[in-house]
């Protein structure tokens, strides 16, 4: 039995909707999303932040939700794969590209891949370099995304089925 002192009220804006919840200080965002909000798109893969299956966007930045204590996110904007399309009837362009390119096999990693790709595109657009970005490239604008940049930036998301070539092609389709 846990004490009331181990719980706090947090307000999260998840996929555009506010949620105020009383959460145990040890509860991670992934479990809150899946068990409390019934948003089961984000998957529990390794539970150690190594596979990327749980990737969501927190205030626009990609994060492994299995490593984030929910209580630390009070006031944050969370976007899961279910919220990528916003209020539109149409899927997000990356979701459409993944479907068109058959960029998944079993689909387990797909939600994390999609959220990571959205975050990765924003990082590159903001000019954030990666390990493979040419050091001589100008630093005052977006980083051009070629296949090696995409592969490097998506390397934190594992696909057990090996759909990587199709994932890269799908991302190329939207840049």
Automatic annotation (TrEMBL):
InterPro entries: 2Fe-2S-bd (IPR002888), 2Fe-2S-bd_dom_sf (IPR036884), 2Fe-2S_ferredoxin-like_sf (IPR036010), 2Fe-2S_ferredoxin-type (IPR001041), 2Fe2S_fd_BS (IPR006058), Aldehyde_Oxdr_Iron-Sulfur (IPR052914), Beta-grasp_dom_sf (IPR012675). SUPFAM superfamilies: 2Fe-2S ferredoxin-like (SSF54292), CO dehydrogenase ISP C-domain like (SSF47741). Gene3D superfamilies: 3.10.20.30, [2Fe-2S]-binding domain. Pathway: Alkaloid degradation; nicotine degradation. Residues 8-84 form the 2Fe-2S ferredoxin-type domain. Keywords: 2Fe-2S, Iron, Iron-sulfur, Metal-binding, Oxidoreductase. It holds the Pfam family Fer2. It comes from the Bacteria. One of its GO terms (molecular function) is oxidoreductase activity, acting on the aldehyde or oxo group of donors. PROSITE patterns: 2FE2S_FER_1, 2FE2S_FER_2. This is 2Fe-2S iron-sulfur cluster binding domain-containing protein.
